[in-house]
């Protein structure tokens, strides 16, 4: 009998041939060194480079590595949704392809799921967060504007919705991502809004983070698009599109955070 999968690691990838190998090596070694019953799913979102071939090469080294492919590029939100709904683990982590948050930080998130939370999200905005390498000043400035608008309109208790390192209990992942609509970079906000509407307990957790200089985010066009997506989420919420029945009759519980966060 095949042992149940305890942890799924979902990695969205678009034109990541230059750095996906290092990420898969670190993830695969971590899984083996800790003897985890795990799977890693790379979702190739229509890459035009050698990303799929790099992943296929690592499958020989790590049999628990799977490759899911989109023929065309749809966006990060679409890729993450594909992986989260395909994952078989009892807990499902999604991580950015650059591994800006080291895979070892998953232990911090696991702790909170062990203590009754449904979702734990990595954060760069809490007092104990360790931002070892910062983004360029203009990206940090635009991030602060986005964060302020997001907190005002949608998620007042979450200080960093955009850190690409989030762990979900399987039931929560399947229900939330089945309802996700956005494919762009603001999908993280939508996912957390849906989580709140479904009554899931969410914990924001300080993590170590290092900026990748090869970010795929365009500071101007993507920032404008993300602000537009915030408006879409707000309108969807006003129209009741996220007002779904609570999970198994549980009381709706908002975001929780035991620490006083920095306003970043």
Task: Provide the descriptors you would attach to this structure in a database record.
single chain, globular, 264 residues, two-stranded parallel ribbon, seven-stranded mixed beta sheet, alpha/beta, 9 strands, Spore Coat Polysaccharide Biosynthesis Protein SpsA, Chain A
Describe this structure in words.
38% of the residues lie in helices and 18% in strands. It is of the alpha/beta class and 264 residues long. The protein has a single domain, classed as Spore Coat Polysaccharide Biosynthesis Protein SpsA, Chain A, CATH 3.90.550.10. It has a seven-stranded mixed beta sheet, with helices on both faces. A two-stranded parallel sheet has the order 6-9. Helix 1 packs parallel to helix 2 (51-61), helix 5 packs parallel to helix 8 and helix 7 packs parallel to helix 8 (221-238). The longest helix is centred in the C-terminal third of the chain and has 18 residues, at 221-238. The N and C termini lie far apart (49 Å). Residues 246-264 have low confidence and may be disordered.
């Amino acid at each position: 009998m095949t042992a149940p999968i305890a942890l799924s690691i979902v990695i969205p990838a678009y034109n990541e041939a230059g750095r996906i190998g290092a990420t898969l090596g670190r993830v695969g070694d971590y899984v083996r060194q800790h003897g985890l019953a795990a799977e890693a799913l790379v979702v190739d979102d229509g890459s035009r480079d050698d990303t799929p071939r790099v992943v296929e090469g690592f499958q020989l080294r790590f049999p628990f590595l799977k490759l899911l492919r989109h023929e065309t590029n749809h966006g990060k939100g679409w890729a993450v949704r594909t992986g989260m709904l395909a994952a078989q683990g009892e807990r499902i982590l999604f991580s950015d392809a650059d591994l800006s948050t080291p895979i070892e930080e998953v232990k911090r998130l696991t702790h909170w799921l062990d203590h009754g939370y449904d979702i734990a999200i990595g954060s760069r905005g809490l007092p104990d967060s360790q931002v070892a390498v910062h983004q360029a000043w203009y990206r940090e400035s635009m991030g602060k504007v986005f964060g302020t608008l997001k907190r005002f309109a949608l998620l007042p208790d979450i200080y960093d919705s955009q850190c690409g390192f989030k762990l979900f209990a399987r039931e929560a992942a399947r229900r939330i991502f089945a309802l996700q609509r956005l494919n762009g970079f603001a999908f993280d906000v939508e996912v957390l809004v849906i989580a709140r509407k479904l009554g899931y307990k969410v914990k924001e957790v300080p993590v170590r983070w290092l900026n990748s200089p090869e970010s795929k985010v365009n500071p101007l066009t993507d920032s404008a698009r993300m602000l537009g997506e915030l408006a879409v989420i707000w309108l969807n919420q006003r129209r009741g599109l996220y007002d779904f029945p609570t999970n198994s009759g549980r009381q709706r519980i908002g975001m929780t955070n035991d620490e006083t966060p920095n306003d970043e």
